[in-house]
Amino acid sequence: MTRQMHLFAYLKTGPTALHAGGWRHPDAVLDDFLEPGRYQAIARTLEQACFDGCFFADLQGLYDIHGGGFDTYVRRGGQISFLDPMVVLPVMAAVTSRLGLGATLSTSFLHPYHLARALLSMDVLSKGRMAWNIVTSATDLEARNYGMDEIADKAARYERADEVVEACMKLWKSWDKDAFTLDKESGLFADPAKVHYANYEGRYVRTRGPLSIPQSAQGHPVLMQAGSSPRGIQFAARWAEIVFAPDAADDKMQENYRTLKQGIVAADRSPDDCALCVQTTCIVAETDSMAQERADYVNALATEELNMATVSANSGVDVSRLAGSESVADLAKNQGIHEALSMLETVQRERGAALRQTLERRLPNMIVGSYKTVADRLEAMFTSGCCDGFVLTPVMFPGSHESFCRMVVPELQRRGLFRTHYTGTTLREHLGTTPGR
């Protein structure tokens, strides 16, 4: 069978995703982001297009790094999670039967028993379509919301994350698949010999178990991860079945792809057991010129201050107060996403006095063009060893995902690059992966 790409949709429980101006576009729908119907509609759209799945990016709080407060993010409409995705996902599961459904949950703040119980419950009810986007978190604001003074250093966060996932894996196997008898005549409901304590004890977490929840149709949720630091890649090589990777120049993406796959093999897994999917933002139209007009228009809607606030949020550095000579790493301390910090260090080094002006104009990299132009670029990345698929990040909701599904997906299908129908029922079947260990 010809290798086919994987497609996932990046979602937020709010009107703004990664593009700071998208919510201001006349076609962006704003009056329903607190309504169940909004999320059910996009779930149906993605399933009709045969997407592998979707996931909600999330933050356990409200960004208040830029300018020392949350004024810019609230006033200018930054990327805010207005609802808990674990409440939204069940309403999406109820109107779909194949689409994978992912939640972002932190190993730094949540206990493995809580994580294992909530995620497996969703996986059982969705009949094996749940994914856990594992994050270690990267902001002091989240830590303070959970009663801590500051976020732990990265090494400690990943050590804890390994333990949390180890504990969850043991808890998810509390019940053997054939534990239930349900024999009314004999009065035997389930075999207690097929229910097991976890008895997990590590340096950071411990849990006895067992869970009261049986295994799902796919055994347990698919594991997803987005860390791009060396330690994050090591974690992904051990556990992840989906890696959400940043876009970059082709040679850099190819290098990242090789590094991850080599790490997976070193972890005694098959390289096919993890799909690397690159973050991709597309603006598509009937012609290249029409798409460029759309891109120019929506880019002009992004306010400079919110662009800077987004950089502050991702890097953990208040760039409104960043002088050219200050060390980004020293200012970030333990905060910040690896890729965002690397970008900020590069811009500071290369742009010097023009740092602020550069950050004010910073927007997501975009593929802009007709459906054929967009498909050409995705095909080139896919076939040249950059990735196994893509995470589509929208500019405006719901139009970005809808236009991609309506125009680009059929072109990918015509080229034999993407499925025309689902052949499995679970997310793990869509991926063709085996869990890490």
From TrEMBL:
<dbReference type="GO" id="GO:0016705">
    <property type="term" value="F:oxidoreductase activity, acting on paired donors, with incorporation or reduction of molecular oxygen"/>
</dbReference>
<dbReference type="InterPro" id="IPR051260">
    <property type="entry name" value="Diverse_substr_monoxygenases"/>
</dbReference>
<feature type="domain" description="Luciferase-like">
    <location>
        <begin position="35"/>
        <end position="385"/>
    </location>
</feature>
<dbReference type="InterPro" id="IPR036661">
    <property type="entry name" value="Luciferase-like_sf"/>
</dbReference>
<dbReference type="InterPro" id="IPR011251">
    <property type="entry name" value="Luciferase-like_dom"/>
</dbReference>
<dbReference type="InterPro" id="IPR016215">
    <property type="entry name" value="NTA_MOA"/>
</dbReference>
<keyword id="KW-0288">FMN</keyword>
<feature type="binding site">
    <location>
        <position position="228"/>
    </location>
    <ligand>
        <name>FMN</name>
    </ligand>
</feature>
<dbReference type="GO" id="GO:0004497">
    <property type="term" value="F:monooxygenase activity"/>
</dbReference>
<dbReference type="Pfam" id="PF00296">
    <property type="entry name" value="Bac_luciferase"/>
</dbReference>
<feature type="binding site">
    <location>
        <position position="158"/>
    </location>
    <ligand>
        <name>FMN</name>
    </ligand>
</feature>
<feature type="binding site">
    <location>
        <position position="229"/>
    </location>
    <ligand>
        <name>FMN</name>
    </ligand>
</feature>
<feature type="binding site">
    <location>
        <position position="104"/>
    </location>
    <ligand>
        <name>FMN</name>
    </ligand>
</feature>
<comment type="similarity">
    <text>Belongs to the NtaA/SnaA/DszA monooxygenase family.</text>
</comment>
<feature type="binding site">
    <location>
        <position position="58"/>
    </location>
    <ligand>
        <name>FMN</name>
    </ligand>
</feature>
<keyword id="KW-0285">Flavoprotein</keyword>
<keyword id="KW-0560">Oxidoreductase</keyword>
<keyword id="KW-0503">Monooxygenase</keyword>
<protein>
    <submittedName>
        <fullName>NtaA/DmoA family FMN-dependent monooxygenase</fullName>
        <ecNumber>1.14.-.-</ecNumber>
    </submittedName>
</protein>
